[in-house]
Task: structure prediction
Amino acid sequence: MTKLLNASLFRLLVIGFLSICLASCNGDDDNPAMAPVKIQDLNGNYSGKTAITQGNKKSQTDALFTVKSTEKDGIITMNDFPVKEIVNSVISDPAKATAAINTIGKVKYDLNFISQLQTNKTQIHLAFQPKVLDLTVPVDGVNKNVKVTFTATKGIYTGKSKSLNFDITATKITVDGTVPSPYQNILYNFPNFIKK
Result:
């Protein structure tokens, strides 16, 4: 019986020793939440859903964009910028607006930015410098020159999730130099776009 008791006690000691050893090694791995990022980590292709809001109207659309960045600045290129709300602000007839959108096709928009690595090196902040978007919109057989002015909030790239978040707002539209009335701002929200 003493041998059985000693064997059981020995097993308990071995199991306890191994538990302590394994637990002490558990924190040795690098913490991905604190993984440092570099400005070059921004570069790549991103995908997600763009949330679009104009007044009480809300919609979503799948979107893709490419980011090219240097140490100081960069550009986000969208080869299929969503223009439905812009065209609907210019053309009130839904059938004519849909026809115009189909005629326009895909619209490319480049969004310039200046990047800044945060002091903890886990995020990159992007200060945007939006350009005016020029569109030619066919209205009743006549091409109208539409200019869209944007403002933007700061973008944030997070290293842990490899995601980019930002908003841009179409604050002004002109059609052949005239502001359509009434006009409501169009908010384009790009939340949690994941780098592929």
About this structure: DSSP finds three helices and ten strands in the chain. The radius of gyration is 27 Å. Residues 37-195 form one domain. The mean pLDDT is 87.
